[in-house]
Design brief:
single chain; 157 residues; alpha+beta; Gyrase A, domain 2; two-stranded antiparallel ribbon; 6 strands
Length: 157
């Protein structure tokens, strides 16, 4: 049950911003998990989740969200910056994601993705303004696509 719950946590934080342990507990309960604050706190610690700042355009202060371990490593920060700055559109089908960039930027984006070492990604092909990301399994498409979308909508680290 613990392993399944922790996989659910990783899926949740990859597909939407989760701002607090309380919110995470509510999302888990909505999926049928019986959790306490102590359980969620222990899972967050065991998974090594960290909080990173979100862009907040309303001037009300900085908000945060949980991310997977390693998100703050240098190459992850580079990937985050590159995606936020250069990716204009994200589309996916089956086990492939297509990222659209300004002309001349696709190779930079492809290189940053390759460096990231995401286990779900087999490889990339970068052209002039398009990157093709090939996934190891079509089941990973929603999570990986959402990661790219989240990076596009946030300030780089």
């Amino acid at each position: 049950m613990k392993t399944t719950r922790q996989r659910a946590i990783l899926s949740l934080i990859a597909t939407r911003p989760v701002h607090s342990q309380e919110e995470l507990a509510q999302l888990l309960e909505a999926q049928g998990y019986e959790v306490t604050q102590a359980t969620v706190s222990r899972d967050v610690k065991e998974l090594g989740l960290v909080k990173v700042p979100l862009k907040n355009g309303n001037g009300a202060g900085t908000q945060f969200k949980y991310v997977e371990p390693g998100f703050g490593r240098t190459y992850e920060s580079r990937l985050h910056r590159v995606i936020a700055d250069l990716v204009r559109n994200v589309n996916g089908s089956a086990n492939q994601i297509v990222l659209r960039t300004p002309p001349g930027s696709a190779m930079l984006v492809a290189s940053a993705i390759d460096e990231s070492g995401w286990k779900e990604i087999i490889g990339t092909l970068g052209g002039d303004d398009t990157v093709l990301v090939i996934l190891d399994d079509a089941g990973h498409l929603p999570v990986v696509k959402q990661r790219f979308e989240d990076m596009r909508s946030e300030n780089p680290l």
